[in-house]
C-alpha cells in the first residue's frame, strides 16, 4: 500500500525480447484495466493502481503513485482510470463534475509528464522502445448531452495523445489513444447510466488486447462497431451531431423523443 493510493506490484522477469519489462496500469482493479493486466505476458512486471477515483483525484495520491513508479523500471504506461456521470451537467453534483476533470484529464497529464521522459531515456539507453496508452472513448468524437463533462474529458485525451504522438515521432516510444465503445464494466452502474447502453457492449477481455495489438502500429484505435460514429462527425455539422446524440440518449433512456 502506498500512502494516499492503493497499489500492487507484480515483479516480472523482464527477459523476453520485444516485450515490456514493467507496466503501470491505472484503474486496474476491474474492467478494461484488469483486462490489460491479464492480457500482458507473465514476464511483464505490473504496477497496478486501484480504481478509487478519489485517490487519483487527490494531488497527494498522484504524487505518491509517481514516487513509487519512479523507483521501478516502467516502460509501459496505461492511463486507464476514469469515471463518468450521467445527467444534465448543471443538475449533477459539482464536485463530481470537477472530479471527472481531475481523474480523466489532470491525472493523465501529470502521470504522463512525470513518467514518460525517464521511460524514453531508458528505452534509448537500452536500445528498446517504451509505450504509452491513453484510454479515451468513442464519445470523444461527439458532443454528448447528458454526459457533457465526461465526453469533453475524453475529447481532451484524444487530442492530447495525438499531439503528443506527433511531438515524439522520432523518440523511442509508441503512443496510442484507445477509443473503446460501450464495454461491459462497472462504469455504467457507477455513472448511473441506463441499461440500454449495454445492449451492444463488448467484454473487457475482448477490448484490451485490441489496444495492445495496435500499440506501435497506429496512433488512434477505435473499437469495432464504433468506427462509424467517429467518422460521422467529419462530414456532419457538430450542432446536428449533438442533437442526434441527444435523441439517441433519450431513446436509450426511455425518455421518448421530446
Report on the architecture of this protein.
There is one protein chain. By secondary structure, this protein is α/β, with parallel strands linked by helices. It has one domain: 3-Layer(aba) Sandwich (Rossmann fold). Helices cover 46% and strands 13% of the residues. The protein contains 9 helices and 7 strands; from the N terminus they run ββαβααβαβαβααβαα. It has helices at residues 31-39, 53-57, 59-69, 94-126, 148-167, 187-191, 204-214, 227-235, 238-253, and strands at residues 7-10, 22-25, 45-49, 76-79, 130-135, 173-179, 220-222. A 7-stranded mixed beta sheet has the order 1-3-2-4-5-6-7, with helices on both faces. α4 (94-126) links the parallel β4 (76-79) and β5. The longest helix has 33 residues, at 94-126. The relative contact order is 0.13.
Overview features:
258 residues, alpha/beta, Rossmann fold, 7-stranded mixed beta sheet, globular
Task: Give a brief description.
The chain is an alpha/beta fold and 258 residues long. The protein has helices at 31-39, 53-57, 59-69, 94-126, 148-167, 187-191, 204-214, 227-235, 238-253, and strands spanning 7-10, 22-25, 45-49, 76-79, 130-135, 173-179, 220-222.
